[in-house]
């Protein structure tokens, strides 16, 4: 976000924000927080609205960003970024989280009462598909089979598998993708 102000003015202003964040970090200084809040909250809300957030969502995200600043002021490192960059990065991440949450499918309604007995033909087809899938998984190369089992039967995320196996995340994703392609072709 280029500014028309001279760099010395921006440095002075950044120094002021850094000092206020330090007061929040060290002394839980509410006056310092109020000053930062008064300056950044409306700007964050505007930033989020320009990026497509509704006014309500932008307000909620701005409040969340400010609460995060209060709680995590100790994580701010002025050698890595300016105060404004740090704050707006938190805002951007909150916006991404909100979008992901909005896109997450709602769980289906849980049926109450006794369920209908499944059709015998459907039950037989499901049993046959399960047996075919078991054979297809067993036929995978060992490296792919292990990762598929960890991801789908062990319910581990790709990151958790990487941490557990020591393999790079990209390798894990590639092997799982190859394994799923093989399974898809086998199950046709």
Describe this structure in words.
InterPro entries: RNA_pol_sigma-70-like (IPR039425), RNA_pol_sigma-70_dom (IPR014284), RNA_pol_sigma70_r2 (IPR007627), RNA_pol_sigma70_r4_t2 (IPR013249), RNA_pol_sigma_r2 (IPR013325), RNA_pol_sigma_r3/r4-like (IPR013324), WH-like_DNA-bd_sf (IPR036388). Residues 37-104 form the RNA polymerase sigma-70 region domain. Belongs to the sigma-70 factor family. ECF subfamily. It holds the Pfam family Sigma70_r2. Residues 132-183 form the RNA polymerase sigma factor 70 region 4 type domain. With 188 residues, the chain is mainly α. 73% of the residues lie in helices and 0% in strands. It contains eight helices and no strands. It has helices at residues 7-27, 30-50, 55-72, 83-103, 120-138, 142-153, 158-165, 169-186. Helix 1 (7-27) packs across helix 2 and helix 2 (30-50) packs antiparallel against helix 3 (55-72). The longest helix is centred in the N-terminal third of the chain and has 21 residues, at 7-27. It is elongated and about 70 Å long. The N and C termini lie far apart (52 Å).
């Amino acid at each position: 976000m280029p500014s028309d102000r001279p760099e010395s003015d921006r440095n002075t202003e950044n120094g002021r924000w850094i000092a206020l964040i330090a007061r929040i970090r060290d002394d839980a200084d509410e006056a310092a927080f109020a000053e930062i809040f008064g300056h950044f909250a409306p700007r964050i809300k505007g930033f989020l609205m320009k990026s497509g957030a509704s006014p309500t969502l932008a307000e909620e995200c701005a409040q969340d960003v400010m609460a995060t600043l209060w709680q995590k002021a100790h994580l701010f490192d002025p050698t890595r970024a300016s105060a404004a960059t740090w704050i707006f990065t938190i805002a951007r991440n909150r916006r991404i989280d909100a979008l992901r949450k909005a896109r997450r499918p709602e769980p289906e309604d849980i049926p109450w009462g006794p369920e209908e007995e499944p059709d015998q033909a459907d039950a037989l087809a499901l049993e046959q598909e399960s047996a075919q899938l078991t054979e297809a998984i067993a036929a995978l190369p060992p490296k792919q089979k292990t990762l598929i089992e960890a991801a789908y039967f062990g319910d581990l995320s790709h990151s958790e598998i990487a941490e557990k196996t020591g393999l790079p995340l990209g390798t894990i994703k590639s092997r799982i993708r190859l394994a799923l392609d093989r399974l898809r072709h086998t199950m046709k």
